[in-house]
Amino acid sequence: MRTKILMLVAAILVFGSLSWAKTITGTVSDSMCGAKHATPSADAAACVKKCEDGGAKLVVVSGGKVYNTDQQDQLKGHEGESVKVTGAIKGDSITIDKVEAAGGM
Question: Distance (Å, rounded) from C-alpha 93 to C-alpha 90?
Answer without folding.
Answer: 5
